[in-house]
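[Automated response] Your request has been received and processed.

Submitted sequence:
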Amino acid sequence: MQLRKGQNCALLASGATVTCRWRPTLDADADLSALLLTAGKVRRDADFVFYNQPHSRDGAIRQDGKREAGGLVEDRISIDLHACDSQVDSIALALSLDAAPPSSLAVLGVVTIGIHDNGGGELATFSIDDLTSETAALTVELYRRDGAWKIRAIGQGYHDGLAGLARDFGVAVDEPDPEPRTPAPAPHPTHPGPPPIDWTNPPVPAGYEL
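Generated structure:
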């Protein structure tokens, strides 16, 4: 099923693999990550699954890494819905840029998200083709409703990268250490100068004496 932004559908599977594909570029890459949410926030930093923390504490969410797929780059996250903690009511999938400023996700071209069952069958797809200056984006969300799981297409961009997106969902993000201040140079020794000028009776410039 091809989803449009804001559209949802039932997720009729016990597990799913979410893939994200984009055009390879020389100077930019991207990474797919997952946030396990309870009432819109992570419960702890361990609920953030990304390249430096490739699986959730319960093992239900796993970052499977990248591979080449039909000339595109594909990043993958596997989700075992049965093993997912019962307190988690939604799983947000985010794509973040890995490139030096001023690059943005627009350099990746059309980003295509696929949701597949455990057998590889396609359950839904969603394409994002309107990214401009964003450096991170929420792609799709898997969420519980009345005891069943559903998929929602989001496509919401962020301009402050993965750190800003994660911070919005309650992840404690380490800020870079401020650059050490350079001490001001010591003042040079001062020497007595000429006496101050009395501007009520200023001196007459040379050559203009009366």
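Summary generated for your ticket: The chain is about 5% helix and 40% strand. Confidence is low (pLDDT under 50) at residues 176-184, 196-210.
If you did not submit this request, please reply to this message.
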